[in-house]
Amino acid sequence: IKLQCQRMSPNTETRLVLLGKTGSGKSSTANTILGRKVLIQGSGMWDFCGRHLTILETPGLMDTQQTPQEVQRELRRSVSLLYPGPHAFLLVIRIGRFTEEEKETVQHIKLAMGSNALAFTVVIFTHGDLLEEGGNVQQCVIDGCPELYELVISCGGRYCVFNNLTVRNKEQVSEMLALVDSVLQANEWHAYCGRMLHTAEDERKLLLEKEKMLNRRREHDIREWFERELEVMDSDRSKRENTIFMFCPLIYKMWINVSLCGPMQHSMWKQH
User: Fold this and answer.
1) What is this structure's pTM?
2) Looking at the DSSP assignment, which residues form a beta bridge with residue 51?
3) Which Pfam families does the entry mention (predicted)?
4) Spatial contact of 172 and 160, defined as CB atoms under 8 Å apart
5) Are 91 and 98 spatial neighbours (Cβ–Cβ below 8 Å)?
6) How many CA atoms lie within 13 A of 2 on its CB side?
7) Residue 91 pairs with which residues in a beta bridge?
8) Helix/strand/coil (H, E, C) string of 197-254?
């Protein structure tokens, strides 16, 4: 599907994509936004305060036997389903330690849709009930993890906390939509479109080419090092052989002398 960048007017349809690894709370977050427990995986629509919302939940990342390329391809395919393009990505992260799987999830998103995708992203921290009473996610979670702090900054500092135990909590949905509006305003009310997907594909190809060049350079450096080591070994072996050859005549003479002197010394001992 060829997507075109389209400008939207405020308070019209808003297309949102939920991203995150399995277990992060994507389905619960989708149900909270929709106001009812209906969405398991796929898309759903709902009118919220006169605003038409379309929610697409992508398959969980990092939970299959797919290769990174297959995961990224599936991610791009899912995004292309929201024609003519999503207005914002909702990156769902469970409150707690920022795991290696979650870091890889972010990397998959950047590789599949380009680093520019983070400019369209709102981070949603789920399981807000795990925060201690009066706890602040900025102090308790974000500030304690440099990688997570950098991610939030890359997303324009846009984040909110969801407690999905209360599905009909309109207040937290309103807070999230306010952040989505800030995404739209920052991007001049343009959706993430096919042109950006193509740019992301160009970025990915360029990155792969750089990796290939780097690997070739490493191989070349290793080959040169190995050849130098072989030369040193050959040189050392040649030196050892020359040393042996130099001492061979001397050793031979010593052997002759010992051989000749042996019988003479024996006869002298007998005479005594």
Assistant:
1) 0.68
2) 48
3) AIG1 (PF04548)
4) yes
5) no
6) 0
7) 19, 123
8) HHHHHHHHHHHHHHHHHHHHHHHHHHHHHHHHHHHHHHHHHHHHHHHHHHHHHHHHHH
